[in-house]
């Protein structure tokens, strides 16, 4: 083992714990259930920036919506039931609306009684806080930019038919916000306002299809125009961006076909009765492919110039075709005469008379045929069967000359239409799909499609997509950028001329941290400027503004590489913009890979240098801007402080004001005393880092029991807050640090064909470096990981005895058998994952036996001396259940201390709350026993007989209730 070198970089310093702080209790699992926090996906800022809303509440229980005025402390709280609801604001910010779901107790009761539950809708008038409630609401929508109306669609009555052909229409209430007058439209199936909000398009689906059709309502005059009526169903209303035209689908029953026949309808030049309508069905039409029809699964849309309709097509089967294939079908008259008979009788009689048996009576084997030439495994085809059946091939219909063009087909499935609808790009991987599914190396042929002529031209053959992905279009639709062989290029779609964008820049555009088996993995492409003149491309640190022809390049971040600082990403705060508008202020996330400081940078309008506004030991995100006001919002967090929202009214984010109060109960409990960043050298000679999170009430000079948590590279999340909860993998950092544990999270750098040995080379020196700080008690160190972390945990304990205990969740344990097993969640094989993704072992084990065996935990199982808690669920669709069974049985055969927990019916991560809670509690019981000398839990010390399991679970539930 190489001599370990390390240094400490202290990031947070709250060491001096007061007596009061020391007396604070650690979190219990009961506290986690009651833990009150803001739901991170619920933030909403009003268009004028004057109101901010969020949902908050306990981990288990009912929630509240908070609406706060950002300029003062005015705020309103409303109960919203057990589900998170995001507030929607009207465009003028005078109104807010949100749904209220059933309470948690009602949800639990309904699961037992099968009683239907309904949502309420709450409408608020701001700032007066006048509240109006609507019951049994299905959907709602404000009327675009007009802010005059609220459309509310109600759920169907309880006694409504659930048959697939039953009418889907329900009442739609149009509520005038200022006058509070209501207008009801019955039997509405779908509705949608245009951008301006002055026109409502809707469809009717009534009983017996009476009055079915597509309608428009002028929201100023109330005049309703029937665009079309028919005994048909209508769906998928889709307005164009400007709100001047929309397209939708119509379906009719047709005796010739097994399925409904769809028609695409385009509506434009909207002017009441004079509105223009275009209909196209396609079947049996000129140039329309045989046995195909317009698909009901896609969403149609207009071209930019409203000269073309785009839609999907798929296979349609005629009834006559199926009848002709089954020549032995019994006629209705014959069926009436036939006597009831068994299937065997029918077969015997048919055989005796020399007639083929009726199709319905033929006994067929239930089987799957796996052929070595299948491009996708049969299991993948089965998993993706619904997607395959519903797949739509992109097509177009040009109105002027009534020309149909099929843009995508069975080979060229993936077709992407460029902005302005002048060109499309098609990707054909059919010739490479089989090998891609075998070795993970992806290639495709790329075609340029001229949407005016329909001509397709191959512009790239065997284009490598594993490293750089697909083409990125410029907003004008005439240029695109892409990565190839470690460099970035542009292509003029009109001339097909290519330009090397990065050849003159003295920087690498190959991702230096990507250690997968991928050839020259690409650094990020930030896309085009809104005027299509520039491409924004990042090397490993700096962001470059490069002209479309590659002749000029400017670093917007001015040699940040010298201080290991980089542009992590761009905040999208102008949702209507196409591309990055450099005439507006643009904001970026910035990061320092050495000290893990993060911040926000500003590229001022018209300038060419990003200015860092602030950068410190916090994590920043959720950055946004009010669409109609100079108000900015962002979140701020660190290891000890939960995410809080801040508001600023200046472009440089000065004088930002905190407007939320997250995790109000945290101050009642002991909490982590900070985090240290450890620099160390791996056994392979790589300079790496590890995050060491200090336990609550940390005292310098004292050593603590420590959990080493591993996955891959984790230190970039140094300043992220861990919300107490019941995760699917069982481990929660905040829960452990609150209860006196230190938590170590090291980075792991991988060598190809040595994933397990790489983990050993990185993790063991990290643990020794952490012990060297005096914070970690070397006799009380455990390790835990889930999935890939579970694999590395199960492998590490075969190579080192540095850990007193280990817990491995859903681990790969035999790389040889795992290589050819199936990833059941997708149906594909693991081979591609091994050879080009996380597995990092290539080629197959038959040519690489030593590496596969060297990195497989099961082949070193005799060396295990560390007690192991193993989790593997029986329906794991990522890591096959047999991997856990094999490792458990091997350890058991050798009389090694191991307990495996299996939650029946659970997948790779635990989903059901009772199971998540149970595993989290058991894991901590196990670590408390192994590292804190607490009594061994019975399930670990003695096990539980299958016949006693019910009593065991009931007793634990009672004990936990008493404790909590």
Provide tags for this entry.
single chain, about 950 residues, alpha+beta, Rossmann fold, nine-stranded mixed beta sheet, globular, disordered N terminus, hydrolase, 6-blade_b-propeller_TolB-like, signal, Peptidase_S9_cat
Protein described:
The protein is α+β, with helices and mostly antiparallel strands. Among the domains are: about 5-15 and about 665-935, 3-Layer(aba) Sandwich (Rossmann fold); about 405-465, no CATH class. It has a 10-stranded antiparallel sheet with strand order 7-8-9-10-11-12-13-14-15-16, with no helix packed on it. The protein has a 9-stranded mixed sheet with strand order 1-46-47-49-48-50-51-54-55, sandwiched between helices. A hairpin with a 5-residue loop joins strand 32 and strand 33 (about 500). Helix 11 (about 755-770) crosses helix 12. It is globular and about 85 Å long.
Helices, by number, come to 19
Strand order of the largest sheet: 7-8-9-10-11-12-13-14-15-16
| CATH architecture grouping of the domain at 6-15 and 667-933 | 3-Layer(aba) Sandwich
Strand content: 25-35%
Total beta strands = 55
Mean pLDDT level: 92
C-alpha end-to-end distance: 47 Å
Low-confidence regions: 1-21, 322-350
Judging from the principal axes of the Cα atoms, what is the shape?
A: globular
What's the CATH class of the domain at 6-15 and 667-933, please?
Answer: Alpha Beta
Which structural class do you get from the secondary structure elements? alpha+beta
Looking at CATH, the homologous superfamily of the domain at 6-15 and 667-933 is Alpha/Beta hydrolase fold, catalytic domain
**Major β-sheet annotation:** 10 strands, antiparallel
Please tell me how large the radius of gyration is: 32 Å
Residue share in helices? 10-25%
What is CATH's topology name of the domain at 6-15 and 667-933? Rossmann fold
Organism: Pedobacter steynii
Domain Peptidase S9 prolyl oligopeptidase catalytic: 764-932
Keywords: Hydrolase, Signal
GO molecular function, one term: serine-type endopeptidase activity
